[in-house]
């Protein structure tokens, strides 16, 4: 586990070990891997925007939910870093989050909650957005037409 001190000096945020969400959870990768994962998932969403929604190799709504859960874990890990150590990961996240916002729109119709009605969805801002188009949007929209 990475050393965390009050100053955050000499801290390698990329190797910071994010504690599991609960005692029964699997160990999580280091924060750098999680941030890289969020960026990679946004790139995948971009690549698949114009894909055929019937292609089972592209992401659907379940994958999108997993992506949002990953962003929750990144946020949890970031919150445990001392403030001075947050500058670099915050810069990377702000760029990735801007791209995510550009690809999505507010979920004013509650599509995510309708997709998983038996589970509460997250409360962070990314849980209030859905893709503007693409296979994930198609998957979420099918509930509206059913």
How is this structure best described in words?
This protein is mainly alpha-helical. It has one domain (28-145). The protein is 47% helix and 4% strand. It has helices at residues 31-47, 61-79, 87-103, 111-115, 135-145; strands at 104-106, 129-131. The protein is globular, with a radius of gyration of 17 Å. The N and C termini lie far apart (49 Å). Residues 1-5 have low confidence and may be disordered.
Widest β-sheet, arrangement of strands: 1-2
Extended strand count: 2
Overall residue-averaged pLDDT value: 89
Number of domains: 1
| Structural category | mainly alpha
How would the global form be characterised?
globular
Number of helices: 5
Give the uncertain stretches in residue-range form: 1-5
How much of the sequence lies in strands comes to under 5%
Please supply descriptive tags for the structure shown above.
146 residues; mainly alpha; disordered N terminus
Summary, kept brief:
The protein is mostly helical and 146 residues long. 47% of the residues lie in helices and 4% in strands.
SSE layout and pairings?
Blueprint lengths: L30 H17 L13 H19 L7 H17 E3 L4 H5 L13 E3 L3 H11 L1
Antiparallel strand pairs: 1-2
Helix pairs in contact: 1-2, 1-3, 2-5
């Amino acid at each position: 586990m990475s050393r965390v001190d009050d100053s955050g000096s000499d801290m390698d945020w990329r190797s910071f070990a994010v504690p599991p969400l609960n005692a029964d959870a699997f160990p999580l990768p280091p924060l750098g891997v999680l941030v890289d994962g969020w960026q990679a998932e946004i790139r995948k969403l971009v690549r698949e925007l114009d894909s055929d929604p019937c292609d089972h190799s592209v992401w659907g709504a379940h994958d999108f939910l997993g992506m949002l859960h990953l962003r929750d874990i990144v946020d949890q890990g970031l919150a445990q870093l001392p403030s001075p150590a947050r500058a670099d990961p915050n810069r990377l996240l702000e760029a990735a989050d801007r791209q995510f916002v550009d690809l999505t729109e507010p979920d004013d119709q509650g599509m995510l909650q309708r997709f998983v009605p038996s589970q509460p969805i997250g409360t962070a801002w990314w849980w209030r957005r859905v893709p503007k188009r693409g296979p994930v949007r198609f998957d979420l929209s099918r509930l509206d037409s059913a």
